[in-house]
Amino acid sequence: MELNRDTLTINSVEYNRPTQTVVVVGIDGGDPKYIEQGLEDGIIPNIERMIDQGFYCIADSVVPSYTNPNNISIITGSPPSVHGISANFFIDPETGEGVPMTDPKYIRAPSILAEFSRNDAKVVAITAKDKLRRLLGKGINIAGGSVNFSSEKADQCTPEKNGIDNVLSLVDMPLPEVYSADLSLFVLEAGVKILERDRPDLMYLFTTDFIQHKYAPGTDVSNKFLSQIDNAIGRLIDLGAIVGVTADHGMNERMTPDGKPNVIYLQDEIDKEFGTGAYRVVLTLKDQYVVHHSQIGGYTSVYCQAATSTKALINFVSTLPGVEGAYDSPTACELFDLPPDRQPDVIVMSSWDTGIGSSESEHDFSDLQGFPLRTHGGVSDQPVPFIVSAPLNDTYVARAASGRVRNWHIYDYVINGTRR
């Protein structure tokens, strides 16, 4: 591996040149309870080996504990206040329209992947859902030999756009269904095959949380899925990579004792108290994958219309059963390190066992196909696993013991923390 520089400073963090392939595996919805149950059941020997021989702790993800802000934090090594991705869906202040935060134009900071790829490193970024591919791929030097694609559209890869073609043949798997475990397993199998064939310098492999949205830790389906993830991680390590494993967010079940989704319909509650049109609820988890969560999350935005009061709104919603916190924009930005210009007037978070919807008429739980409502978004879904396959040096052992570890520290710990 020949890089232009011995170190690169990216978003105020200095990264050493890796001396062996670095792979970060992001398990979408990889709540620590899955790891704990897997260890108890003896089904994840490779992750257990990582824990025994390397480093393991419970880290905190970004709040809102959603996919987009956390993935961009992981690949930039920075919080949303730096990189600008503050939710999955938001009101663009420039247009006033609600839009998904999937356009790379919303990213304000360079990624670790892009900067290394522009300095002669071969970088690979593979994700399950194509909605995330463009965000992860921003700035990656495809012409210089780097690779960026999704398993969702692996059959459409071209060297010009993705840095690779004939992916289905390479992985020796058919194109996976979107709502399947195979969408994630394809990512990991592709990573193993590319590592074996090309020996890239830096890799990011990110799955999808379809299984975690449907199956609790310890169930047969989730155990099988976790075991398959573990198998792929073991092969990455055996091929000589230093591997880091983390997640974008946790996952909790939001159901009532009688088996119904436990949801606060926030727009309905606000309209009953203040009248229609006083406040507008915008669901920040919103995306096209309704089978996962029916647009119900644990964190949502509220915009004041006309001269309505944030204080009155906060005082009211704080009394609703299942609401864990309600904050005005300055407070939310300070607490969760968010970009001020992309915040609503008020953010509302639910407790671990409650979800937040808009109006009851807008949610169709038949999308869940008979499965329980399992979702994420708030502080209760913030804890994530943080695992490194090699021992940390003394500096990083002390750092982990004395401060808060975040999921977006993972490249720092894997690249710098394992350096002797």
From TrEMBL:
GO molecular function annotations of the record: phosphonoacetate hydrolase activity
InterPro entries with a match to the protein in the record: Alkaline_phosphatase_core_sf (IPR017850), Phosphodiest/P_Trfase (IPR002591), Phosphonoacetate_hydro (IPR012710), Phosphonoacetate_hydro_insert (IPR023116)
Pfam families in UniProt:
Phosphodiest
Q: Record's NCBIfam families?
A: hydr_PhnA
- PANTHER family (UniProt xref): BIS(5'-ADENOSYL)-TRIPHOSPHATASE (PTHR10151:SF120), ECTONUCLEOTIDE PYROPHOSPHATASE/PHOSPHODIESTERASE (PTHR10151)
Query: What is the designated name of this protein?
Result: Phosphonoacetate hydrolase
Q: Which organism is it from?
A: marine metagenome
Q: What taxonomic lineage is listed for the species of origin? A: unclassified sequences, metagenomes, ecological metagenomes
